């Protein structure tokens, strides 16, 4: 079992829909990261958070430390949001990151 | 502002050939990483360098070697390529200023095919 589990694995939405991607992890962490990867492209960091909530444009990331769960929300989704969204965690005292397998999002016009 | 630059972007090798993937960052980051990405799997760590002068194995180091040439550059070498090393390789860096687990910055990826 992967230490980082994402759901759903695949998601298709209509333009304008509100989207939620979930991430669960199994042990205490120092930070949780949300990353975005466009088809054939590089990987970009969207958020790094250790508590509460962060917002950037139409993207919102939340984390619940007690429940070991994070969500990435996209409001008013657009076809350009189509990408793979990857959750990763980092642990105190280690330089390593553990990655989920990603959620493939397709937003239809 | 280049960020993390890795070369080459594409490479085709025959089994047994060797090659080096180059990575450089211009953000004065301390830590650098090499990952491979395969379908259906999360990014897997090959090797990392927590700081200049140090390197450590990740979860899939077999068949690879690395060199942290200086603070900017971290190269990955395949001495004798095998078809199982067909993958997309990503270099990443983070500042890790006394507190591991900072924001990661990735290169564009290198797609390697071994025939």
Explain this structure to me?
- The complex is a heterodimer of chains A (about 110) and B (about 120).
- Chain A starts with a strand and ends with a strand.
- In chain A, a hairpin with a 6-residue loop joins strand 9 (about 85-90) and strand 10 (about 95-100).
- Chain A is an all-beta fold and about 110 residues long.
- Chain A has no helices and eleven strands.
- In chain A, the strands form two sheets. In chain A, strands 2, 4, 5, 9, 10 and 11 form a six-stranded mixed sheet that branches. In chain A, strands 1-3-8-7-6 form a five-stranded antiparallel sheet, with no helix packed on it.
- With about 120 residues, chain B is mostly beta strands.
- In chain B, the strands form two sheets. In chain B, strands 2, 4, 5, 6, 9, 10 and 11 form a seven-stranded mixed sheet that branches. Chain B has a four-stranded antiparallel sheet with strand order 1-3-8-7, with no helix packed on it.
- In chain B, a hairpin with a 6-residue loop joins strand 4 (about 30-35) and strand 5.
- The interface of A and B includes residues 2, 41, 86 and 94 of A.
């Amino acid at each position: 079992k992967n230490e980082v589990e994402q759901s759903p694995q695949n998601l298709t939405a209509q333009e304008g829909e509100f989207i939620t991607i979930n991430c669960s992890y199994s042990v205490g962490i120092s930070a949780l990261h949300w990353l975005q990867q466009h088809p054939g492209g590089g990987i970009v960091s969207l958020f790094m958070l250790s508590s509460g909530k962060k917002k950037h444009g139409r993207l919102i990331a939340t984390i619940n430390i007690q429940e070991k769960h994070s969500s990435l929300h996209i409001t008013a989704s657009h076809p350009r949001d189509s990408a793979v969204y990857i959750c990763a965690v980092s642990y105190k005292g280690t330089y390593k990151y553990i990655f989920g397998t990603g959620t493939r999002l397709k937003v239809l016009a | 502002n280049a960020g993390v630059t890795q070369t080459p972007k594409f490479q085709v090798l025959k089994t047994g050939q060797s090659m080096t993937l180059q990575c450089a960052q211009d953000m004065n980051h301390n830590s650098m990483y090499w990952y491979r990405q395969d379908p259906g799997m999360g990014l897997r760590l090959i090797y990392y360098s927590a700081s200049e002068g140090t390197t450590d194995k990740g979860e899939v180091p077999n068949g690879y070697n690395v060199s942290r040439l200086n603070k900017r550059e971290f190269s990955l070498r395949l001495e004798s390529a095998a078809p199982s090393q067909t993958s997309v390789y990503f270099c990443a860096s983070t500042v890790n200023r006394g507190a591991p687990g900072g924001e990661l910055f990735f290169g564009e990826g290198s797609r390697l095919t071994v025939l």
